[in-house]
């Protein structure tokens, strides 16, 4: 049994390396991510709350004419697993294309959870020297960096500070709550 687990783990890390990117394996190599994805979802303290963005009040959300809603998850997890959860709900970690959407997310999250400070949004550098990108493939046409950000090297993922709406670079293995954009 132990040998089998070890084999699975070794195969897993080799394939992650061949692709040349880092994955959640780097964050917690011993855990089987599929299993822990299940158990995290069943955790009762996890709050996840959806809210549609009123497209009449916020005409341009950056997804063309498609209607979407935002879903906030209060359980802290690393960037990769957060994005996996968003995909599970047929969405992505949120991209933000203007200050209105930035404000909307800031106010929505602070209203539903007054303790949260940083949340993952879908902006990431694939490698140290790569440009920042939105994980949903849309153009990174708006940013709201805090002073001294974005950082490079080890801080390749992005979190929004709910207290001031500014963006900060984080290590992708940091564990934070997160927000997904999901299409209807
Ligand atoms: C989100 O909440 C629903 C119930 O509203 C629950 O069934 C689901 O497991 C939760 N998902 C996560 C990732 O916490
Ligand atoms: C999520 O991102 C993928 C690309 O990574 C894209 O094809 C898909 O349309 C996105 N979904 C949403 C709801 O934005």
UniProtKB/TrEMBL annotation:
Q: Does the keyword Signal apply?
A: yes
| InterPro entries recorded | C-type_lectin-like (IPR001304), C-type_lectin-like/link_sf (IPR016186), C-type_lectin/snaclec_domain (IPR050111), C-type_lectin_CS (IPR018378), CTDL_fold (IPR016187)
Q: Where is the signal peptide?
A: 1-16
Annotated keywords: Disulfide bond, Signal
Establish whether keyword Membrane is in the entry.
no
- Which Pfam families does the UniProt entry name for this protein? Lectin_C
Annotated ranges, domain C-type lectin: 64-181
Membrane-traversing stretches: none
Entry protein name? Proteoglycan 3-like
Source species of the chain:
Pelobates cultripes
């Amino acid at each position: 049994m132990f040998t089998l687990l070890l084999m699975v783990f070794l195969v897993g890390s080799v394939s992650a390396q061949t692709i040349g990117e880092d994955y959640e394996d780097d964050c917690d190599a011993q855990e089987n991510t599929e299993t822990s994805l299940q158990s995290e979802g069943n955790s009762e303290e996890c709050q996840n709350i959806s809210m549609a963005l009123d497209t009449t009040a916020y005409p341009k959300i950056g997804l063309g004419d498609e209607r979407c809603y935002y879903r906030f998850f209060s359980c802290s997890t690393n960037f990769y697993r957060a994005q996996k959860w968003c995909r599970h709900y047929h969405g992505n970690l949120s991209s933000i294309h203007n200050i209105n959407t930035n404000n909307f997310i800031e106010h929505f999250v602070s209203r539903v959870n007054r303790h949260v400070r940083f949340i993952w949004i879908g902006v990431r550098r694939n490698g140290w020297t790569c440009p920042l990108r939105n994980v949903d493939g849309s153009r990174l046409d708006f940013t709201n960096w805090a002073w001294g950000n974005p950082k490079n090297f080890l801080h390749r993922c992005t979190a929004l500070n709910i207290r001031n709406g500014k963006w900060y670079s984080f290590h992708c293995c940091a564990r934070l709550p997160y927000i997904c954009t999901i299409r209807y």
